[in-house]
Request: fold
Amino acid sequence: MTTTDRELLTESVHAILREQIFSGELPPGTALSVPALAAKLEVSRTPVREAVQQLIYEGIAVHTRNAGAKVDSLDANTIRSVFEVRELLDGLAAHRATLNATHDVIAELRLMVSEQRDLLGGHADAKRDALLDLRFHTRIRDVAQNRPLSDALLRLDSQAHLYRSDMWSSDTGRRLAVQEHERIVDAIETGDAEAARTAASAHVAGLLVRITRK
Reply:
């Protein structure tokens, strides 16, 4: 197997494990045994070991002495800290994206939000809606053209997914998220970088309140 083939296999294993963690198939606290996962996925141990190390780096898994790696879990205090940092960084990403956005990028963002709005009339699908939300924010971060910023936000997003809530099962939560996305795109389109920063930060702050509300 070439180095490229091994890297692709590691990426594939990593994507599978992330999906299983975020879907709840591998809930918080689940042991990430390299031999067991390799047997289950029918691959060698090396790509599994590398994928698990990547999950640890992303903050999705933790390694404890004598116990090995396991899926991490976040309490309300930790998720609050995660969102407080994300509030600042997503605001910065929206600010930078406004300065870099082309007409095509704006049209692309409009299409994403339009798709989200069209889905409001149907049944909620937490997995689908969470992925659409992540796709929207990832596009803005890409347009910001700041790799350290994007990497930091990817890690924060990964950690946020570990916190279980009914955010994307709630019609109200879905509707508010779409409205907030529209405000972000409106600001980007008008070229108001500060308004985009404010809208993005307010969106993240609102998400935190909603997912932790009793």
In short: The mean pLDDT is 91. DSSP finds nine helices and two strands in the chain. Residues 180 and 203 are 6 Å apart (CA to CA).
